[in-house]
Please model this.
Amino acid sequence: MFRIARTIFGMMFGWLASMVLGIFGRFHQDPMANQVKRRTFVRNAALGATGSVLALLGAGFGALMWPNKTGAFGSTIPVPKDSVPAVDGAPFRNIQGKFYLVNTKDGLLALYTKCPHLGCAVPYVGPAEAEHAFQCPCHGSMYDYTGLKTGGPAPRSMDYMGITVDANGTVLVNTGDIKTRQTFDPSQAVPYTA
Ligand code: FES
Model:
């Protein structure tokens, strides 16, 4: 009887001891393994940080190489229907896009504000003596409402930009599409009906 009880007790003690050792085993960590884990962690962290810096530098470089030109000179800039001048009305000016939108009897023209002489910005001087006019303040070149040169040292008439009109009547001025010309021809104007 005593033997049986001792055997049963021994088995229970053995089972309990194995459970306790198993639990301790989970918390026990080999110092060498810890060192390896730490080294791996430090290496991964350094690689991650370097990768992040390179990715940020790459993104910044990409942004410089392919800047977003929306709304800026070089892009296509919309002019809402409400801002389109009436026929022979005062020009609409877009400073960022560097153009005047004029509405001649032949249609719309987007005139590049840069003087073809030496590059000064050409202001609109308004109807003077019954004529619309643009006059360059630098050396006095003069242009009429269509951008045609009427006087001064400029070698040609004002340059103009490509225009399309969408279904809503919004005028899309492509400020990256600049055309040169000597004189004004009605075919340069884009017909527009509001
Ligand atoms: S830059 Fe305009 S006239 Fe010289």
